[in-house]
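Input protein
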Amino acid sequence: MIRRAYVGAARRLVSVGVGTMLSLAAAHAYAADAFTVASPGLADGATLESTHAASANNCGGGNVSPALQWRHPPAGTRSYAVTIFDPDGAKGLGIVHWVLYGIAPSITSLGAGGASPPGSVAGTNRTGGPGYYGPCPPVGDVPHHYVVQVYALDLAPDALPTGLTRDALLAAMKDHVIAATSTVLRYGR
């Protein structure tokens, strides 16, 4: 009787162990195929070099956008949008550093300081102009967080009008985002 109880308990333990291993394997497979974005050579939370800072207002940079690369886009992606937003800027009200959308689904990276991909649309940054505008946090502030977001959309690359602000882009993308991914970069002076 004791032996039978021991064998039964051992079988249940093996069954739980195998089930747990299968669950972990499935979670790992899911994580390996997740839609992700990174800036090559920089871990999430890493500090940007000063070349990425704004070149105006004594910010000390070259206004070079960081390189970005995204992987494992979801099925049905027809275009991408990219934003860089500093939630710490403007005393917590936030500053928009880059809005780029209408990126063809065949594009999965942007080079550092490179030109926008053909057919893509540069939205409106914090200056009211198009393109990338680098960080320029106040001297002595704790390094700011720059949230880089890539959105996989079910919209054709030419579906949205030109010159959208970040807020207008977010409103236009409502109900069209298949998936989104983000990474955070930091910069201080």
User: Anything to note?
Assistant: The chain has three helices and eight strands. The first strand starts at residue 36 and ends at 38.
